[in-house]
Amino acid sequence: MSFLSEIASAFADIAGVEAVAWCGSAALQKADSLSDHDLYVYWRTPVPLDARKQVIAARASEYQLNNTFWELEDEWIEPGGIRFNAMYRSCREAEEEVHRRLVQHVASLGYTTAYCFICRKARRTNRGSLGTDAGTTR
């Protein structure tokens, strides 16, 4: 799936991006015909809308940017019909969330294991040398 490496590389080239994780049903090979590819982009400094648009618009036949119903997200469909959802998360907030779950043992209904799983799968970016690892693009 070279398209995942291409997308991860494009996001990794944005200043402040620390990690890109590929998770969800597609990454776990449990996808159905309605599934999309979930990408989590972890940042030390917020990822500017213009930079996100540059990555997505170059690939997409359709896209929506800056959705905020659950969290900051961008969605797009590639010309072949593959659907993507990129969610942008602060590394500091992710570290605090993992600390609450694994150190303080504070559960969050329906979300604790999913959040810890995603963070465990995330790998730091090494600009120019991205690969896949069990559902993770780093």
Uncertain spans, ≥5 residues at pLDDT below 50? 126-138
Strand pairing plus helix content: what structural class? alpha+beta
User: So what's the overall shape?
Assistant: globular
Largest sheet: 5 strands, mixed
Q: Please write the string of helix (H) and strand (E) elements.
A: HEEHEEEHHEE
Helix content: 25-40%
Mean of pLDDT: 82
How do the strands and helices of this protein lay out in sequence?
Layout (H helix, E strand, L loop, with lengths): L1 H11 L4 E7 L13 E7 L5 H9 L4 E6 L5 E5 L5 E8 H12 L9 H10 L10 E2 L2 E2 L1
Parallel strand pairs: 2-5
Antiparallel strand pairs: 1-2, 3-4, 4-5, 6-7
Helix pairs in contact: 3-4
Give a description of the structure:
The protein contains four helices and seven strands, in the order H-E-E-H-E-E-E-H-H-E-E. The strands form two sheets. The protein has a five-stranded mixed sheet, sandwiched between helices. The chain starts with a helix and ends with a strand. It has helices at 2-12, 49-57, 91-102, 112-121, and strands at 17-23, 37-43, 62-67, 73-77, 83-90, 132-133, 136-137. The chain is of the alpha+beta class and 138 residues long. Mean pLDDT is 82; it is low at 126-138.
